[in-house]
Design a protein that fits this description.
- With about 250 residues, the protein is of the alpha+beta class.
- The protein has five helices and eleven strands; from the N terminus they run ααβββββββαβαβββα.
- Strand 10 and strand 11 form a beta hairpin.
- The longest helix has about 70 residues.
């Protein structure tokens, strides 16, 4: 029997069982240790705005283990969300950002009752797993992380600080009114300061150009005056020479 075993080798059924047992061992090892770190780790909050659909959210997955980890993202409302990528495999310490796009139905339906499920399992290969490969793993070997969906209306609270000795109060913003946050105001102030500095530089440059043009005009006017004076001197000298010639001619006669 041993010779026949050596010649023929193990049958495909035994190989399949060995592969399943290997996958089960990896899953059993992964069930004892946390494979992934999720950010956010408990809920996905979407802010309802004036747009038809809320803005997308990012789900950050981090592989905490020393092996490859396959992940899969599922939701109880697949028609209300688009998840990219919905599955994949992370190498050790690798980070993957999953983009969750709410669809029109997510804004119109009861989004607060929706749930997301992230499944993870340690694998040997770094390739993406197919649906058939996921079905081969026992359920007890797969780690699961659940997130709730929270749909909130766009509201901002204004913090009003009174002078010292009077106290501090916090007033809620009226419905439909939005108050700019301090960070936005600081950014706009910085932009105005930069714009003011740029205008001052432009003003100095224009003043320098005007001063140069005025100096050029002064030089041109002075050179014109000098040329006129030189011409007058030449005429006077020529007149004197002519007079001297006439006097000399009369003296000869």
């Amino acid at each position: 029997l041993k010779r026949v075993w050596l010649k023929l080798g193990p049958c495909p059924e035994i190989l399949c069982r060995e592969q399943q047992s290997h996958n089960f061992l990896l899953g059993a090892m992964s069930s004892n240790l946390q494979l992934l770190s999720l950010n956010p780790n408990r809920k996905l909050t979407f802010i309802r705005t004036s747009e038809s659909t809320p803005p997308s959210r990012k789900l950050k997955l981090t592989n905490l283990s020393n092996s490859n980890v396959a992940f899969k993202v599922q939701t109880t409302a697949p028609r209300s969300y688009s998840v990219r990528p919905a599955s994949g495999t992370l190498r050790s310490r690798e980070v993957q950002e999953v983009q969750v796009f709410p669809l029109l139905e997510a804004a119109n339906s009861q989004a607060n009752s929706h749930r997301f499920l992230v499944q993870a399992i340690a694998v040997k290969s770094s390739e993406r797993l197919s649906r058939e490969q996921w079905r081969e793993f026992p359920k007890e070997s797969i780690q699961e992380y659940r997130l709730n969906v929270v749909l909130e209306k766009q509201q901002q609270i204004e913090m009003v600080h009174k002078p010292a000795g009077v106290g501090t109060t916090t007033d809620a913003v009226k419905s439909g009114m939005l108050v700019e946050q301090t960070g936005d105001l600081q950014e706009r102030y910085d932009e105005l300061v930069k714009y003011n500095l740029m205008l001052e530089k432009d003003m100095q440059k224009l003043q320098a150009e005007l001063a140069g043009q005025q100096a050029a005009k002064d030089i041109a006017s002075q050179s014109g005056y000098c040329s006129k004076l030189q011409l007058f001197r030449i005429l006077v000298v020529a007149f004197l020479v002519a007079c001297l010639r006439r006097v000399a001619n009369k003296a000869e006669l």
